[in-house]
Design brief:
Blueprint lengths: L1 H27 L13 E5 H8 L3 H10 L4 H4 L4 E5 L25 E5 L4 E6 L2 E7 L12 E4 L3 E6 L7 E9 L4 E5 L12 E3 L1 H10 L4 E2 L5 E3 L3 E5 L24 H8 L3 H17 L1
Parallel strand pairs: 3-13, 9-10
Antiparallel strand pairs: 1-2, 3-4, 4-5, 6-13, 7-8, 8-9, 11-12
């Protein structure tokens, strides 16, 4: 009888552990509820006329600014702007990055900046968690492409090109070159001196979300920050690429296969740095 009671006790304990593991899994798994518009098509509208009816509608304005790769101040200066026929969806359905990329499932955090589409996207284990517009390096000062890692950050700093330029929510990705993302004017095309300009709300989000490096000393990095991939090129002699949306709403979409193609050659390096960060965190 005692043996039976002991056996039942062990079985109950094992079942309880498995149940708790299942509950913990459910608790830690993030659910992404997205609202997709019924249809997506675009027209070119007179800016002043459109603003007269929609300027105070924040949800519409946020989408319109992102589609035109600009901010409120520069938007009002444009003669015409690209406007979707249906504003009922979430922002990510009006920008080119895919909402899920299975290939990235093992990467805890990663950010992509697309030069051709002038947009960025942040992913957690393959799920798109944040996206928006950017204005990258102008023709004479292109933004370097490739794999980078976030390093130091500052809520406010001064530009190395002009000490009168204040940069808010600056997060550096190429320390020696002085390249990083930050809040600054978005005229609606690549116009920076190689940095990645963002709307302030986007710069602040990535500033809080991405990880800084950990230095072993003044010269050596012990743990790298969040991986950042800048890819593609911008044809400065052609019309803005997002004008193609007027003919085809999917004309500049970035596919999952494209992201996999870009990431595959450097995936092992990214995972190795991620493992290094996790091991360091265990020792803290």
């Amino acid at each position: 009888m005692k043996k039976i009671i002991l056996l039942l006790t062990i079985l109950f304990a094992l079942c309880s552990c498995k149940k708790n593991e299942s509950i913990e899994t459910v608790k830690t798994k993030k659910l992404y509820v997205r609202k997709e518009p019924k249809t997506v098509s675009y027209t070119l509208e007179n800016t002043k006329q459109w603003l007269a009816q929609n300027e105070k509608k924040d949800a519409k304005m946020n989408i319109a600014l992102a589609i035109n790769r600009t901010d409120k101040t520069n938007f009002t200066k444009m003669d015409s702007v690209i406007i979707p026929s249906d504003f009922s969806g979430d922002l990510e359905f009006y920008l080119p990055f895919p909402t899920h990329i299975d290939y990235l499932k093992d990467i805890d955090k990663i950010i992509y900046f697309s030069y051709p589409t002038q947009t960025f996207a942040a992913y957690e284990n393959g799920e798109l968690i944040y996206t928006g517009p950017t204005n990258m390096g102008r023709k004479k000062d292109p933004t370097p492409t490739g794999l980078f890692y976030t390093n130091w950050k500052a809520e406010q700093t001064t530009s190395t090109f002009n000490d009168e330029w204040d940069l808010r929510w600056n997060f550096n990705i190429a320390n020696k070159e002085g390249v990083g993302w930050h809040q600054y004017s978005l005229p609606g095309y690549p116009a920076s001196h190689s940095c990645l300009r963002l709307q302030e709300k986007d710069a602040r989000y990535l500033y809080d979300w991405a990880d800084q490096w950990v230095l072993a000393d003044e010269e050596n990095v012990k743990v790298k920050g969040t991986p950042v991939i800048v890819f593609g090129s911008y044809d400065f002699d052609e019309p803005k690429p997002w004008l193609k949306l007027l003919e085809n709403s999917k004309a500049i979409n970035i596919t999952e296969n494209k992201i996999e193609q870009i990431t595959k050659p450097i995936l092992n390096s990214i995972l190795l740095e991620q493992k290094n960060r996790k091991e360091f965190q265990k020792t803290k």
